[in-house]
């Protein structure tokens, strides 16, 4: 057992060293530069408007909503509003949740430039505990955005009120 463990550690170290040496043999023109400069250190930092992707045509008022604490067994919904900020009509092809407990509902009509529309996301709070559910929006063919709902489901009592034992003593008199 000791020899097998030592062999596995040695094999892992060999592959780790081998992988590092292969990276150093990659031609420099094939390596992508990932230098990041902070906006605070640059006086010529571009504005947030110029950072916006010009092909981006959907602007969400919010991308995440926290329901907070919700009782178990009580479905909840939230409405996400968005605006077509592009110059062409916007079409939502699909709005898909990550599981069956989350149900998105959206208008399938085309949204003209400058117009707003809504996506209603419902959550069936059957399971106790915290949750975070992503919902993927596919629009204009291949463009994708993601919104998230989250919260914490607390267990509701089995009975509506605790049993009153004093009632039995009143009945016996």
Number of strands: 8
Strand order of the largest sheet: 1-3-6-5
Largest sheet: 4 strands, antiparallel
CATH class of the domain at 53-154: Mainly Beta
User: How large is the share of residues in beta strands?
Assistant: 35-45%
Cα separation of the termini: 77 Å
Q: pLDDT average, as an integer?
A: 76
Q: Which radius of gyration do the C-alpha atoms yield?
A: 27 Å
Keywords: Signal
Signal peptide: 1-19
Region (Disordered): 36-57
Protein name: DUF1573 domain-containing protein
Please give a structural write-up:
Keywords: Signal. InterPro entries: DUF1573, Ig-like_fold. It comes from Ginsengibacter hankyongi. This is DUF1573 domain-containing protein. Residues 36-57 are annotated as: Disordered. The strands form 2 sheets. A 4-stranded antiparallel beta sheet has the order 1-3-6-5, with no helix packed on it. A 4-stranded mixed beta sheet has the order 2-8-7-4, with no helix packed on it. The model is unreliable at 17-52 (pLDDT under 50). It has 173 residues and is of the alpha+beta class. It contains 3 helices and 8 strands, in the order ααββββββββα. The longest helix is centred in the N-terminal third of the chain and has 23 residues, at 2-24. 19% of the residues lie in helices and 36% in strands. The chain has a domain at 53-154: Immunoglobulins (Immunoglobulin-like), CATH 2.60.40. It has helices at residues 2-24, 48-51, 166-171, and strands at residues 58-60, 64-71, 76-84, 92-97, 102-106, 116-123, 129-139, 143-154.
